[in-house]
Amino acid sequence: MAIRPTSRTDVNRSAILAQLGANGPASRADLARTLSLSPALMTQLVKDLIGEGLLVELEQAPSNGGRPARMLGLATSAGRAIGVKVVADHVAFVEVGIDGRVLRSASEPFDAFSSTFISDLVARIRQFIAGGGDVTLLGLGVGVPGSVDLLGNGIVDAPPLGWSGVELGEALRRALALPVIVENNVNALAVAERLYGLGRSHDNFLVVTIGTGVGAGIVVEGSVLRAASGGAGEIGHIPISDDGPLCSCGNHGCLEAYIGERALVTRAREQGVISAAAGIGALQAAAESGDERAARIYSEAGALLGRTLAGVVHTIDPAFVVILGEGTAAWRFWSFGFEPAFRSHLMRHRRSLPVEVETWQDESWAQGAAALVLATPFDAAGDSGDQGRLIRARLVEQAGRP
Question: What pTM value is reported for the model?
């Protein structure tokens, strides 16, 4: 399915497990329809999963005259995954079942710039894991706002956190004795969208996040595009001007420096829309109360986002775009500028491209990180290295338990 097999992560088998875990037993035909897969491909995937001990055939479903369908069920439902979202001032956690459903969540303060940030992060993860009782964990997924060299290595470059060459994966594996997958947080969201969202029906789509930063997860032929150093999708650092405001990456004039949360707040303060001590919540409140200056700040940001995304769409040709992130809480104000700018800068035959704006919760980032663990057991190209094999072994071991 993938353009480059070496970058392929086979999420279809994970999606089958998730579907059965969430909705109970189903036939091959029902699964093929739900997951938009061909009957032939579904037959082969199910054969593989039964052979691996992860699925079992159950009783036959009632027939309306044709051949009775064999129902399929999970051989295990006990395996769970932990997802962690890391940002500069806090970490968010979720524990999910094999179906991706969030079983519990938490958020804790965190200082990414502290000299003890790794030990602090380990302590908070241990505390969250301990709160779940005696459960079998398949592994830990961590989403960070930056580039990650390889999923299995987890060496992080994250300017928003002040991290350069941080060997996060190795540090967490050594401290927690768990398989650990580290990935850019927007790529993690793209994996979750492929497993549980609109991406189940499309192999090519774009996930865009707005809020503190601006980023994108690019899915091509069913695989998240990581490219040479794991940094594909950093659309927030597309240069908009030569002499624009300073960006967190150290350059001037990046898209994020114009429409990221900090930029919007700075503009609102300069224009007297909000006080010098107020933040993004005050700007949104001002827009909702009818302040035209506040609405204009959002609309201008939306127009710049729309024009830039039109260029990205022309480059990768997605079937649809999903917009996520904490910034979507004020999307109705962004949209006044976004829609006309986006549509008018697209070539005519692309102007009807669907754009979905999904509701947002902070735990969505962490749920995306947990999805990394659930997709990894079927990493056909081995991008996750030893960590993927360890997660797979744990999953198969669970399936073999009575």
Answer: 0.83
